[in-house]
Specification:
By secondary structure, the protein is of the alpha+beta class. The protein has 6 helices and 5 strands; from the N terminus they run H-H-H-E-E-H-E-E-E-H-H. The strands form 2 sheets. The chain has a 3-stranded antiparallel β-sheet with strand order 1-2-5. Helix 1 packs antiparallel against helix 2.
Length: about 230
């Protein structure tokens, strides 16, 4: 390093220390971001497993579906598939409290269950009349996407501050929030299967409402329920 003791302006002593400090802070800052990113991506995998396990509990056919709908009779047993999914999601989340924030002890991540059941409209925008599940563009009904819809918040990134650069996210920003979804076709229970093929449901609410239905073909008394593969 060149040192000029006669002219203070041309004196370059100390530049090496400044370069070292700047490089050191830069490397530490990059290391913090890489650690936070890899740790957060690992948390996404765990959150995906929890959501999928809850959807799998919901898809089992040994429990009844929520009440309502043409193909779903009232759930009178109290053991619904929705409650099974809720219980599975809660139990698995409590196994990883630091990664899900289930018990409020995590300041880095927060996994929140949003909906269990038909998630065809979850997170979608620009669609009209979501109550009737009709697409505003074509008017056709969307197919049900049954499963579990959750949301993972990376609170870790919201609190990171890089030296000389500051925070990587503005206060109050909803930048690091991601949807976690798992869709599995739900198997109907025996009660739901029998209700689907019943006279009141399939004939009166289904066949008779078909376009071009001829009342002379038959009536409700002549309807015979024939199950495809048995209930």
């Amino acid at each position: 390093m060149k040192i000029n003791s006669h002219n203070p302006i041309l004196n370059q002593s100390g530049f090496l220390a400044a370069d070292f400090l700047f490089s050191f802070v830069l490397v530490i800052g990059c290391g913090i971001i890489i650690f936070a990113l890899t740790f957060s991506l690992a948390t996404v995998e765990i959150a995906q497993y929890i959501t999928w396990s809850a959807a799998r509990s919901y898809s089992a056919g040994n429990l009844c579906a929520p009440p309502g709908g043409v193909t779903s009779p009232p759930c009178t047993s109290g053991k619904s598939s929705t409650k099974a999914a809720d219980a599975k999601f809660k139990n698995l989340s409590l196994k990883f409290p630091l990664l899900t924030g289930a018990d409020g002890s995590s300041a880095w991540f927060q996994l929140t269950k949003k909906n269990v059941g038909d998630n065809a409209w979850a997170g979608l925008t620009g669609l009209t009349n979501p109550g009737n599940k009709t697409n505003g563009g074509s008017g056709e009904s969307r197919h049900p996407w049954t499963g579990v819809n959750a949301e993972l918040e990376w609170k870790l990134f919201k609190g990171i501050k890089i030296p000389f650069l500051g925070k990587i996210a503005t206060d109050g920003a909803d930048t690091f929030t991601f949807p976690i979804r798992a869709f599995l076709l739900r198997n109907p229970s025996q009660q739901e299967c029998l209700h689907f093929y019943s006279r009141d449901n399939r004939f009166i609410q289904g066949i008779k409402n078909l376009e071009g239905w001829n009342s002379g073909v038959g009536d409700a008394a002549s309807y015979v329920a024939i199950e495809d593969n048995g209930c």
